[in-house]
Amino acid sequence: MRNLESHPGITMHRIAVGGGIMGALFAIGSVFIFAVGLPVSRWFLLGSSLFGIGIAAVLYAWHQKHPVELTDLQDLSAPKQSSQR
């Protein structure tokens, strides 16, 4: 006799994926699965990739003209001193 209870399957919160190469592999694999499985998502993937490359180019150009210096970062981490005593 067949068991009529459904199997819970793999739950996403049990899959341990952190940063680094395994996280990147998981993300790329997920995108590939959706691109193969859903043909409409290919256009979304193409459009979002082009948009992301455009934003990256703008940010790169802006940072070339406005470089961050080490003294800028030290000023941000220094505690603000009050002028009132």
Round the mean pLDDT to the nearest integer and report it: 79
Unreliably modeled segments: none
Helix content: 55-70%
Number of helices: 3
Cα shape: flat
DSSP strand tally: 0
Distance between the termini: 83 Å
Order of helices and strands: HHH
Rg, rounded, reads 24 Å
Strand content: under 5%
Please provide a written account of the structure:
This protein is mostly helical. It has helices at 21-37, 40-65, 70-77. It has a domain at 41-76. It has 3 helices and no strands. α1 crosses α2 (40-65). The radius of gyration is 24 Å and the shape is flat.
List the SSEs and their pairings.
Blueprint lengths: L20 H17 L2 H26 L4 H8 L8
Helix pairs in contact: 1-2
Brief description of this entry?
The chain is an all-alpha fold.
Task: Describe this protein with a few key phrases.
85 residues, mainly alpha, 3 helices, flat
